[in-house]
Amino acid sequence: xxxxxxxxxxxxxxxxxxxxxxxxxxxxxxxxxxxxxxxxxxxxxxxxxxxxxxxxxxxxxxxxxxxxxxxxxxxxxxxxxxxxxxxxxxxxxxxxxxxxxxxxxxxxxxxxxxxxxxxxxxxxxxxxxxxxxxxxxxxxxxxxxxxxxxxxxxxxxxxxxxxxxxxxxxxxxxxxxxxxxxxxxxxxxxxxxxxxxxxxxxxxxxxxxxxxxxxxxxxxxxxxxxxxxxxxxxxxxxxxxxxxxxxxxxxxxxxxxxxxxxxxxxxxxxxxxxxxxxxxxxxxxxxxxxxxxxxxxxxxxxxxxxxxxxxxxxxxxxxxxxxx
Amino acid sequence: xxxxxxxxxxxxxxxxxxxxxxxxxxxxxxxxxxxxxxxxxxxxxxxxxxxxxxxxxxxxxxxxxxxxxxxxxxxxxxxxxxxxxxxxxxxxxxxxxxxxxxxxxxxxxxxxxxxxxxxxxxxxxxxxxxxxxxxxxxxxxxxxxxxxxxxxxxxxxxxxxxxxxxxxxxxxxxxxxxxxxxxxxxxxxxxxxxxxxxxxxxxxxxxxxxxxxxxxxxxxxxxxxxxxxxxxxxxxxxxxxxxxxxxxxxxxxxxxxxxxxxxxxxxxxxxxxxxxxxx
Amino acid sequence: xxxxxxxxxxxxxxxxxxxxxxxxxxxxxxxxxxxxxxxxxxxxxxxxxxxxxxxxxxxxxxxxxxxxxxxxxxxxxxxxxxxxxxxxxxxxxxxxxxxxxxxxxxxxxxxxxxxxxxxxxxxxxxxxxxxxxxxxxxxxxxxxxxxxxxxxxxxxxxxxxxxxxxxxxxxxxxxxxxxxxxxxxxxxxxxxxxxxxxxxxxxxxxxxxxxxxxxxxxxxxxxxxxxxxxxxxxxxxxxxxxxxxxxxxxxxxxxxxxxxxxxxx
Lengths: 324, 279, 265
Fold this sequence. Notes:
Chain A is mainly alpha-helical.
C-alpha cells in the first residue's frame, strides 16, 4: 500500500511539470509580447511601466529562460501580480477559492446522495418502469445546456415568482441579518446554482452507478450469496453494492475539472464571486499572470483530486490493498 | 431401500433468448437417497448445471421452469415461496461452484463469508461464530486456519478457496451438498485431495452429495450411482461399476472413450455461456 | 430495420436538422443579420414565427443559420479531435514502450485541465473566430479517443494476422491504417458522435459568454446572450435557442446510444 502511494506520487511529478509547460506555452501562443497586447488594451500603461513589466517578467529574454524563471517562482508560490490591480495573483485566487469550493463540494455531495439510489434502483429492475423513467431523465440531463436551464429557472423562480434571488451572493440587507438570517440568505442565493449543477451531474453518475450495479449483480459470487440463503436485500446491499461502489471513488477525482470548468459559466450567470468568474474576468482583461496561475492551480487541484481518489480506491479494494 | 432425500420428477426448463425459446432440460427424473453420492455426468450444455440450479430456484432471470416437481423434506421446491427457499438454501441444501475464487466475494475475508453462513442459520455471533469458522477450517484440512481466516479470496490458491467453499457449504450441516464441477479448474493433485476430502467429510458428517461433472473418471472414483445426461435428458442410470463395465447408451460410451483418449472433453454449447455463471 | 429506437429517433432528428442547416439560404424567411429598428423585441407572430431580438432581427432566421454554424463547428471540431486522437492513440498502442509512456502522460496532463479554462484562454489570446473555435475544441477533446484507440490496438495487436503482417515486413503505417484502425473504429465512432454533442454544448457555452461565435454571425449560444437581460420580458429569446440545443444534443446522444447497442459494447 505504501509503495503504491509512493509510486503514484512519483508518477505525479512529470504530470506537474507538464501542467506548467502547457500553462506557460498556451499563453505564449499570442503573437507579440504579452505586454504589448496588454498595452493595446490599456492605453494608460506608460512606457516606463511597460519597460518595468518587461524587465520584471524577463520578457526580453528567450522563451525557455522565461519558463525556467517562472517555474522557479511558482514553486515558491509566487505567481506574480495581476495586471489588473497589481495584487498578488495567489491572493486573488485564494480569496475566490472558498466559494467555488463550497458550491462544488455541496453539489458533488448532493449528486452522490441522489445518483446512487437512482442507479441502484434502476439496476435492480432493468427495463422496469423506474429504470425507463430514470433513463429518460438521464438523456434529458445529458442534453440540457446548463446555462440555459439556469436561465429558465432564474426566469421562473426569480423573475416570475420572485421566490429566489437570481444574482450575487448576498442580499442588500445582509449586514443587518443575524447569524441564522445570514445563513438563510446565503442558502437562498446558492440554491439555484447548486440545483442546476446537481441536475446536470446527476445524469452521468446515476447511469454509471446503474452500470456498475448491473455488472456486480451478474458476478458469480452473487449466486453464492443467494445459494447461502441470504435475503435479497442482503445480497443487494451487502454483496453487490459494496463491489459496485468501488470504482465510484475514482469518479470523484474525475469530476473536478468538469465542475471547475462549469463554474465559469454558472458563476457568470449568477454573478457569484468565485474562481470561475475570476478566471473569466482575467481572460477578458488578458491578465496573463492570473490566467497562468489559475490554469496551474486548477490543474494541480485536479491532479491532487485524482491522486486522492486513486489512493482511496487502492485502500478500499482488498485486491489492491493486500497485493501479495 | 434407503430413504429418498430428494426426488425430482419430470423437470423441464427453457431459456428465453432474443425472443426464442430454447429447451435446456427436457423431462429429467432423478432422486438421491440419504447418504448417497450421485454423480450427474455429461458434456457441457447437457443441462446438468441447469437442472441443479433449478432445484433450488437459482436460475437466471431468463430461464423458466415449465414443469416438474422437486420433493425435498416434504416440500416441492419448485413451488415454494421465497421465504421457504431461503430457509432451505445454505441450511439444508448447499452449493459449491466451479472456480471457487470467482464465486467468493472479493471484498470480504473468507472468514467473514463463512461466518455469514453460520450467523444466518445458526444464530451464533461474534467470538462464537469465529470459533466455529476456525473449527470448520480445520475440518477441511486447512493448515494455519488462524492466518487464513482473515485472508481475502484473491490471496489464496484455487485449491484453498475450494476448501473454504466446502467449509462454507458445510457450516450449517446441510443434508445435501450440490457440487458443480468443483475440481475442473484445479490441477490434478489438488483435485485428488479435494475429492478425498469430500468423500471423507460425507462419511463423517453424513450428507448426500450430488456431484456434477463432465469427467467420468471422477465418477468412477467416488460415485455410488451415476446418471448420464445428454441434451437435457437422462440417457443412462446405473451403479458405478455397471456404468463402466457395461455402458448401454452410445453417449455414455463416447464419454468413457473420450476420457481414455484425451482426458478432457472440450466444451461448446450456447447453454453454458447463457447461464452466466461465468463471465 | 430500425427496431433500434434510439438510433431511429436520433437519426431522424439529426437528419431534419441537417436538412435545415443545408438549405438555410432557401428556407430562411429573412436575412439573419438584417437589423430592423421598427421591430425590436417582438413576440412570435405571423410575420416572425419565433419573434425578433433586441436589434429587430428575425429569430427564426438566426436560428436556421445558427444550425449551420453549430453543426459545422461540432462536426469539424470532432473531426480534428478524432484525427489527433487516432494518431496519438495508434502510435501509443502499436509501438508501446517510451512512445506509449510519453503519449499517455501527455493525455493524463491534458485531462487535468478544465477544458473550458484552456479553451477560454486560447480563444481570448487568439481572438474568437469560427476556425479557432473549431481547432481549440478539437485540440482539447482528443484524449478520450486516444485512449480508446490505444486500448483497441493493444488488444488487436496480439492477433495472428497482425503478427503475420509484421513478420512479413509490411510497413507499420500500412498495418495501422489498413488493419488496426478499421477494426478499432467502432467505439471511436460512438465517441465521435457523442463528441459532436459535447462540442455543440461547448460552443454554445462559449458563444453565450461572448467568446464564441461573434455576432452578427448567429449561433444558438450567442442568441442567448440577450436572454439574460430580457428575462421575463422576452421569453422567446430564451426558449427557442435553448430548446434547439437541447433537441440537437439529444439527437446525437440518441444516435450514440443506438450505435452502442448495435456494436454491442
